[in-house]
Each structure stands twice: as structure tokens, then as C-alpha cells.
């Protein structure tokens, strides 16, 4: 049976150490890290994410600024708010909860965030920095996954790593981080000719497809580290991942559960990025 990678526990440890560092930082500089979260519209899942982010800020000793805007908000109005926050010294990180309503260009809004406050690391300037390995912030989900892999003690260098899914927020940056850690990386997607064959070669398998339980036990190398990013619903409407946990946990060496795996890490990494942004701002 695979060892369960406990994302909840690891996330709590990281948030605990950020809390301690933040208290020291505030005492030394008088600066309290601040995160502004903008939510446009009333998507229930987004409302939960925003609430959790606010709670996490309070827990680690940050200031949190919440902007709840109606669905009818125009792109110009949203960019105006972002621009104001770009120039607000108490705000070190700006996060615009995605998805945005269809009449607003996500690309335009992301590009309006100052790269130094872009704690999601979605701005093209930060994406480019991730490519070259010279970055201030890493996108939260892949950064959290790197912590989860580190917690297993399995060395990435020289290992065959397979990432299933090539989204800009998970798959692509994930592959880049594994490459920076000297893994030999294969990226798979919906047009991959033989997904099973590719997955079977993986010492480290990261799955981010949004397709419930699509990775089965016969697709996993015995002993592999399996990271499940998916947040899906099964046939009974129950939360599950992209990996068939019950089957795959009999084959894998280490596996993340859903919930309680990757999800909690994303918020911990957001706190880390906000703290980093505050430190950079204070040193200028
Ligand atoms: P996305 O933008 O929809 O991308 C999905 C990717 O999976 C695409 O690259 C797609 O290939 C690939 N794919 C879909 N079906 C496939 C198949 N049958 N075989 C191989 N590849 C396939 O998704 P995302 O934003 O990366 O999110 C993926 C999942 O992670 C979702 O369940 C999401 O809710 C979850 N998520 C969780 C967190 C967290 O904090 N826990 C954070 C972000 C996302 P093509 O490019 O060829 O279409």
C-alpha cells in the first residue's frame, strides 16, 4: 500500500513557519504583509476559495483586503481597481480570483497586475522568469506539489517525471519546476498517442486533467510517487481526483489524497508568495 502524502499536515507546518517569520519580519521592519483578493461575481466555488484565502491571511498575521465586485463590473473598472492596488503600499500581493465573467479578458487583467505583486505568478513577466529559473514567485499549485514531492524524500534528479495536463496554471509550470530539479520530464495531454505507456514509465507522476479517476492502477509504475491535482466529482457527486485513489494506492509508493493533498498546499504557497513580495518591497 502506498504511503499517503498528507497535504493538510505539510501545509499547516509551512503556514506555521510563515507565521513565525512574519511576526519577526513585522517586529524588524514595521511592515505587515498584505494580500488583496478581488472577486468578481458570485460563483459559489470562488466565494469559498476567497474566504479560505482571507482566513489563511489572518492565521499567519497578514492584512487581507477583500474586494467583492458585482458580475456587471467592466474590464475597465476592474483594471482601475488593480491599478489603484498596484500603488497601495499596504498591499504586497494582488490576486484576482479566476474565472472572471466572460465579458472580461483574464489576460488583460492579469497583465495589469504589477509583476512584483503578482502572487499567483500568472503575469507573462513572471511566467518568463519561471522558464529561465530566475524567479521571485512560483505559481502556487506547482510550488505546493514540489513541497509534497520533497516531503517523500524521493530525489527528483535523474528521475523520469510525467506530467499529464498542459494548462498554463498547473501542467506547464509543473513540468518546468521538475526540469529545474533535474528530472527528465515528459508532458502528456489529450492528444498523447499512448498515455498508459507514458505514465507507466513515470517514477513521479503528476496528473492535472480535471477528468475524474482517469488514471488507473495499470497505468502506474509500482512504487511511483503519484500526485493528484484534480478536483472532480465522481458518479455520486462526491469530491475525487483525476487518479482512481482506491486502485492506484495499491500500486504506488506515495500518493496524495483528494481532498487533503494538493489543495491545502496551494493556499500555503500563496501565503509564502505574499510574504516574499512584502520582503522584496521592504528591501527597496
Ligand atoms: P485545464 O486547463 O482544463 O487543463 C486540462 C489538461 O488536461 C489539458 O492540457 C488537457 O489536454 C489535459 N487532458 C484532458 N483530458 C485528458 C486525457 N483524457 N488524457 C490526457 N490529457 C488530458 O485544467 P487545469 O486548470 O490544469 O486543472 C486540472 C485539474 O486540477 C482540475 O480538476 C482542477 O480543478 C484542478 N486544480 C486543482 C488545484 C488545487 O489547488 N488543488 C489548482 C488548480 C487546478 P489538452 O491541452 O490537449 O486539451
TrEMBL record:
Listed pathway(s): One-carbon metabolism; tetrahydrofolate interconversion
Keywords: Amino-acid biosynthesis, Histidine biosynthesis, Hydrolase, Methionine biosynthesis, Multifunctional enzyme, NADP, One-carbon metabolism, Oxidoreductase, Purine biosynthesis
Domain Tetrahydrofolate dehydrogenase/cyclohydrolase catalytic: 5-120
Reaction equations catalysed: (6R)-5,10-methylene-5,6,7,8-tetrahydrofolate + NADP(+) = (6R)-5,10-methenyltetrahydrofolate + NADPH; (6R)-5,10-methenyltetrahydrofolate + H2O = (6R)-10-formyltetrahydrofolate + H(+)
Presence of keyword Ribonucleoprotein: no
Listed InterPro entries: Aminoacid_DH-like_N_sf, NAD(P)-bd_dom_sf, THF_DH/CycHdrlase, THF_DH/CycHdrlase_cat_dom, THF_DH/CycHdrlase_CS, THF_DH/CycHdrlase_NAD-bd_dom
GO biological process terms, semicolon-separated: L-histidine biosynthetic process; methionine biosynthetic process; purine nucleotide biosynthetic process; tetrahydrofolate interconversion
UniProt cross-references to PROSITE patterns, sorted A to Z: THF_DHG_CYH_2
Pfam families documented for this protein: THF_DHG_CYH, THF_DHG_CYH_C
Gene Ontology CC terms, in alphabetical order: cytosol
MF terms (GO), sorted A to Z: methenyltetrahydrofolate cyclohydrolase activity; methylenetetrahydrofolate dehydrogenase (NADP+) activity
EC number(s) recorded for this UniProt protein: 1.5.1.5, 3.5.4.9
Residues binding NADP(+), per UniProt: 165-167
Occurrences of domain Tetrahydrofolate dehydrogenase/cyclohydrolase NAD(P)-binding (ranges): 139-280
Superkingdom in the source lineage: Bacteria
Subunit (UniProt): Homodimer.
HAMAP family: THF_DHG_CYH
Family as reported in the entry's similarity comment: Belongs to the tetrahydrofolate dehydrogenase/cyclohydrolase family.
Record's function text: Catalyzes the oxidation of 5,10-methylenetetrahydrofolate to 5,10-methenyltetrahydrofolate and then the hydrolysis of 5,10-methenyltetrahydrofolate to 10-formyltetrahydrofolate.
Protein name as annotated: Bifunctional protein FolD
Source organism of this protein record: Candidatus Faeciplasma pullistercoris
